[in-house]
Amino acid sequence: MASKHEEAGLTKEDLLKIYETMMTARRVDERMWLLNRAGKIPFVISCQGQEAAQVGAAYALDNTKDYIAPYYRDLGVVLHFGMTPKDIMLSAFAKAEDPNSGGRQMPGHFGQKKNRILTGSSPVTTQLPHAVGVALAGKMKKQDFITFNTLGEGSSNQGDFHEGLNFAGVHKLPVITMVENNKYAISVPFDRQVASKNVSDRAASYGMPGVTIDGNDPIEVYKHVKEAADRARRGEGPSLIETVSERMTAHSSDDDHRQYRSADELAAQKDKDPILTFGAYLKENGIMDDELEKEINDRIMVIVNEATDYAENAPYAEPEHTLKYVYAEKGGNE
Ligand SMILES: Cc1ncc(C[n+]2csc(CCOP(=O)(O)OP(=O)(O)O)c2C)c(N)n1
Q1: 154 C-alpha vs ligand 1 centroid, how far in Å?
Q2: Domains and their CATH numbers in the chain
Q3: Which of helix, strand or coil describes residue 285?
Q4: How many Å apart are CA 173 and CA 64, to the nearest integer?
Q5: Contact at 8 Å (CB) between 78 and 118?
Q6: Dist. CA 148–CA 62, nearest whole Å
Q7: Could you read off the pLDDT of 102-117 as tens digits, one per residue?
Q8: CA 283 to ligand 1 center in whole angstroms
Q9: What is the ipTM of this complex?
Q10: How far apart are CA 31 and CA 43, in angstroms?
């Protein structure tokens, strides 16, 4: 009998790549918390608990031509699309060499023009109409790409969500929206935010398919995003996918989730940790043993250590660069 990953069209090599990107995201994220608590970087907003949804989805896209508009937790998505741990650390330390903004952006506002990653901004959900607009441009110019955007379930209550999806539905645009439902919007639980049972129920209003799936299983997420991507590439329009997973940290480095979550709830999360459950799947299927697991982890730790040291020692921007990109420059901005 074919195993789950074979049915989804994934090889052992694919699974190891997915695992390695998930693990890289986790290790970079953990390092940023240590740096924050040591007073070296100002802010962290975590991907921890959402790596399976993020990397499973990104793996189903084409990272050589598709456009993505990620949200602030999507470290796993942007790593697969070509941002490096060094890029992430340069941004976290706000150093001049940060390739996205020269140290101007808030950490977690990912972006990279060369890899078609639209730069994020703080008002939640703004990335959705941006992604829909890029999809419209691609369709009008008959270009061969789709767009993918993500947001949290709390953000699906913003006007931008409804306006963007309705427009995408009306114009049958090649765009996939993935809601990463981690059950909280800061301290507000799901049932105090969303009136319907699932966020995906809302898809019907916008004339597109909507599904709610297990966000702790990267194979399941890959399968659904691949189906949605194939539909979009065939010209059959947009899709809404809701992944359900856990937010394994506080909302950000600036709050304490023990104020609004019980000790039992936090303890129960550990069994669902996608790094552990996917690691167990790889071992049960003879794809990874303890030795390979250690080898992968050691390789990642070297990269994370080098990225941290590099960014920590890199120079800040010169003060006179502060107003760069604020006013038009003679001869045009870079
Ligand atoms: C328009 C707007 N309103 C409020 C905020 C403050 N804010 C930042 S993150 C957040 C919660 C978002 O929750 P959710 O969409 O569920 O994503 P999660 O952080 O849980 O992944 C809020 C209210 C904001 N950034 N933008």
Answers
A1: 6
A2: 4-316 (3.40.50.970)
A3: coil
A4: 20
A5: no
A6: 10
A7: 998 888 999 999 999 9
A8: 37
A9: 0.99
A10: 12
